Predict the 3D structure of the following.
Amino acid sequence: MGLFQKLAHFLGVKKREVNVLVVGLNNSGKSTVVNKFKNEEERVAEIVPTVGFSVERFQNQNLAFTAFDMSGHGRYRDLWEHYYKDCNGIIFVIDSSDRLRLVVVKEELDLLLQHPDICNKKIPILFFANKMDSKEALSSVKIAAALGLDKIMDKPWHISASNALTGANIKNIQGIGMRRPRAGINPRTFQFCFGSSYS
Amino acid sequence: MSSFKRDKKEEEDGGGNPFQNIEKTTVLQEARTFNETTVNPRKCTPILTKLLYLLNQGETLSVKEATDVFFAMTKLFQSRDVILRRMVYLGIKELSSIADDVIIVTSSLTKDMTGKEDLYRAAAIRALCSITDATMLQAIERYMKQAIVDRNPAVSSAALVSSLHLTKLAPDVVKRWVNEAQEAVNSDNIMVQYHALGLLYHIRKTDRLAVTKLVAKLTRMSLKSPYAVCMLIRITAKLLEEEDSGNDSPYFDFIESCLRHKSEMVVYEAAQAIVNLKRTTSRELAPAISVLQLFCGSPKPTLRFAAVRTLNQVAISHPAAVTACNLDLENLITDSNRSIATLAITTLLMKQIATFVSEISDEFKVVVVQAIRALALKFPRKHSVLMNFLSAMLRDEGGLEYKASIADTIITIIEDNPEAKETGLAHLCEFIEDCEHVSLAVRILHLLGKEGPKTKQPSRYIRFIYNRVILECPSIRAAAVYAMAQFGAACPDLLENIQVLLARCQMDSDDEVRDRATFYSNILNTQDKSLYNNYILDSLQVSIPSLERSLKEYIQGETNEPFDIKIVPLVPIPSPEEREVKHKSEGMLISQGPIRPVPVSREENFTEKLSLIPGIQELGPLFRSSEVVELTETETEYFVRCIKHCYTNHVVLQFDCLNTLSDQLLENVRVQLDPSEGYTITDEIPCPKLPFNETGTTYVILKFPENDLPNSIGTFGAVLKFIVKDCDPTTGLPDTDEGYDDEYILEDLEITLGDQIQRISKVNWGAAWEEAASSYIEMEDTYSLSSMNTLDEAVKNIIQFLGLQPAEQN
């Protein structure tokens, strides 16, 4: 990194860039969530099932996000791991009304957490218990319990109920943004962090 | 340090290929930069370039390598750099066939192809279609349909062409896009229109009716794009070929109207189409030719080249039509025309080959020689250069096969190109001066004897030939004597000298040489033209194996009567392009000449078979056996085929009958004929028994009408007659002894002139013809040839009809 860039970083002139991976089962609302992160004018009117992945860019607070919106279809879930290596954070979207497949969600989450590219990294994970407007929706607490999120000790995480259609609880989540790294901690890992579980 | 040195050296080389020293492993290593969080387009683009370079140089990646690099590449989608993105598209296309899970980029590509950035859209469509498989196609169908009718011509074209490629993958899905393609045909953009027509035709090409409709519609509406018109001309020409109606159809009118199109390309395409139509007559050809003639004078070299090439094709099928353009063509030869330039380069190349030809093995030399032969046939005007080259090769060291192939090539050139004859013969003469292969020398001497007398200065060859008589082994000497005799017979002014030389040969130590010399010298002494023809100029017509057999039989039997060579059947002439004579002239059959083994002809086979049958033996020698004629359909109860054997005064009809009914035993099978006027049935030989699935033969012997050749053409009604005995299908034994008569009507049998005419090879056709005229009745007949369109076709038909073969290239 050149001297000028370092200076710019220090002064906060240049925006910090982070890569996030958006994963979750199909039809959980990943692309809709990502769409809501974007500015009003850049949003797509119609969301179709993603095939493979799509790259989206948006800004939130002082941070430039590059989101790899992965396809949640069973056929493509194996391909998530190709993008684990260099992501700075994970957004995991769960359909909170789909009680039946909650076990599948757990299975996929465990696979993700055990992956060598993920398990040793202290990357933050943000869970969206999406579709909270649905009648059958489970509360975020129940989902956290069902997925055993309390067992995640080595990574900062946060769960939030959301409604991606209206955008409720999406952009205004506390803590999606820049945090000053504290002394003694690898700055890169903690440049980006979520919510109150880590402060 | 070493790398630094290498860099320096590269710099010194200056302007070399910057990608020369790259390696696969290094590039794959470098491709890991793609995974960095922030993509640096300036770093990634050259790496992608290197990767593409390697792939296009034929470097292969394993599936794992390809998949890894492919997924690394997918991360570049986060960059917004246009150049990098387009490089990624190219990379995707290259790797799509090797890497796994390439469908991962589907959404990214669909986003790009429907996005706002026009620079991405067309390329994204192409990349998308390369990664799509049949199952995924449904998902992108909607986007493809939109793209086909997109307002941006590049996008539309890309979608159309990609669809064309996708038809290989999922023809049924693409078929549903026909409406969009139809709409694209109406586009204003020339490329879109062309591509749309291409796709539309491809979708419909299996459906003839749809194609007809398409053509009918488009020929009426004037297409804006010249490319599309060219395509339409091709489609129309194809329709015309398939359709059997004459050339006055609206399709032809359309093609002809295109001759007046304002685009040169279209005009050329139309002319080319007319030329290539199989049924084109010279009248229809005329406007096309005049257009091509105009092109010959065009300042554009491509047009001139195209015109000359097409005219070349015309010259083969319709030689007369091109004569009008001869002047223009001759101008072009002096012109710095591209085709001539190409030719010059090929001939230059030949000189290059000469330097390394001595270093390669014989087998490769043979290949080179064959290439030269092809070249010589293609460019007859260049014969002198090629000939010199060949003779130089001839003088080099080499095995028999190699030398023989060179000699073959020279002979082919001589036969093909009369201008090259003299030089070719001169080279061959030089060659036999020190030829160590006896068989080759004999062949060349034979050729000299045949071709030498027809040249302007036959005398110069005699020295070469006589040198052989002095220097070589007996078989070459004998061949040389024969060659000299041919000169003596064909060139009266040389006769005296030849006689002197032959007289010297009569003192030869070898019996064969002496015999030949005496024989020829005596014949030449008689000064009798017909003897010349019979014994010197013509070669032996009879088949060698059967001549040998007949002579053996003759020697074993009574030798009171002289041997009659007429009983030996004639050799079928291998290629119909050779010489012919119309009438069989029995007296001219016998002649001496170099002999070579020939396969046993059909006539010989039949002679043997027929001579076993009583009643046929007396008819004399078999003259000609016809092709097999089928008198029933193959799948009927009784399958009957007929072969016509012609004798001097009789015709024997051989009926091969096959019984296909398993529950019947046929007895006393015979064919009852209803002969036409003049014919008399002299004998019938029935087939006594014909069980299931066996072929039996029955014969009918007929006498030709006396001295009435024209009336010998006739049509006979034929009925198969037999006694049926029902039998057990498994054992084949008849149930009862009592049978009943039954008959089965066969198709009419025709005896044509062709059955009665034998092809005979005559070297000196003119002389033989005149001679024949004195001893035979010349028969003239006019045949209506109006149904034929081309010269070739007419000749072919006559040959088929009369069983003749063309005389001496007349």
